[in-house]
Amino acid sequence: MRRVSRIAVAGVATAALAVTVSACGSSSSKSSGGEGKNLGLALAYDVGGKGDQSFNDAATSGLERADKEFGYKSTAVEPQDGESDADKVQRLETLAKQGYNPVIGVGFAYAPAVKEVAAKYPKVTFGIVDDNTIKASNVADLVFHEEQASYLAGVAAAKTTKSNTVGFVGGVDVPLIHKFEAGFKQGVADTKKGVTVKSQYLTETAAEGGFASPDKGENAANGQIDAHADVVYAAAGLSGQGVIKAAAAHKIWAIGVDSDQYKQDALAKYKDSILTSAMKDVQGAVFNLAKSVKDGKPQTGEVRASLSTGGVSLSDSNPVFKNNAGLQAALKKAEEGIKSGSIKVKTS
Known about the structure:
44% of the residues lie in helices and 18% in strands. It has 348 residues and is α/β, with parallel strands linked by helices.
């Protein structure tokens, strides 16, 4: 049902774009882009799309805040199954021509498209979340120290496990998700000796659905739970919903990712099984880029968030987590160590 609803949203968004392009006329197709009134910011979603209760929804919250504060009428466009880089290029070009600024690719898969389109529209600011490979005067690379929040998730898992076995489920076997795994494993190892971490990646590529398949996440979590894991951490986008579902069914702990998943309406029936979430402030990154453009001083280059900047953190919405004094003391010590540099968190 979730996938069907996202396709419907995609259809509406695509139709809206087509209408706007027609209304703009030929004057909107100038290669400089963004010469008229700024319509607001535009998001091009990563796989999983809106409704993932995680990464993409965090970006949406940033868009909604910008609309509220700046009076924008921003837009967001869904991905299509099996799309190519050329499809992404076309999507970004359409948004730039229409007068949206900034235009943000939500996810590292947009890197080739952002690089190509940014060169064609030098007066438009582009952003890309989770990629720092683009070096251009009108591109902001919005990246995070995910490994730091994941280290804290490892501390939480190690302090909570009773079976001395915990699990990690990664959506896709790529360097970005390796950062989550590396930080988590290090946090576990530094906190409690003898705890085993079971790791599994759902797919080799994003096109195979690793970030968009709750059934794959559920199956992976069930396998780890059968191997005695009693805390499972997922860095898998929409697929993480399946991990949380499995944890709730077996009455063990899940650790969410990117957003505070304890507070997500779609996961409300599972929230008592969500110990905490390793968050990164995608919402803030999106909003701050939009604000910088509005202020006439667009962010460019690498913009990296960390524990020190408040850009990554652990949520404390679950009272069981928040009120565990021993766990909170261990987390405080770890966080201080990361901030001071006495704890150097691995990224692979």
